[in-house]
Amino acid sequence: xxxELAAPEPTSVFGRRALLRAGVGLAxxxxxGAVSTTPAAAAPAAPPVxxxxxxxxxxxxxxxxxxxxxxxxxxxxxxxxxxGSDLRVPLRVGAVEAVLVHVVRRYHYEVDALRxxxxxxxxxTGLSRRGPDSNFxxxxxxxxxxxxxxxxxxxxxxxxxxxxxxxxVASCEGxxxxxxxxxxPWEAHFQIDVPPGDxxxxxxxxxxxxxxxxxxxxxGA
Length: 221
Known about the structure:
Oligomer: single chain
Helix content: 25-40%
Number of strands: 8
């Protein structure tokens, strides 16, 4: 009788899985040893840093102050609040600001209460080269209710209001001029009437900052 060969025992399912896992592990190890030859993507270049634009134009306004091209742009003209009101006006900072804010504040309290859109300061367009309106370009003038009091008109202020306006200007001791005294009257207009470096401007700026402000009527002083 021929000898029967024993059939091979089936391979365990768990054994097959172990072999598969071992094969995958070896492939991963082999892959880790390979060095990639693909170059890394370059980092995006940073945008160039631009220096802030100088707002000075090189021109001067009729009262001798440097004209600027824009406000709140790193130059000398910035939007400033008028204390005790909702008003914000772009003006040349420093002594000019102190004096013109004093004018606007007293007008607001003593002539008539002003709304936020009724006072204008610096502007860069629509100006003449040497007329009084050129002073807006240097931040050294304000217009109070320009729509109410256009150039060339008079009689819109009452006698009392005109007296108070005259007193406000007098409190500035020659540093401020009112457009109501121009050959062509402009009752909305107030401007600094001295050039840069005039010591009177510094003195008046200090004076109006120490008590002669809103509500301080000084007729005859």
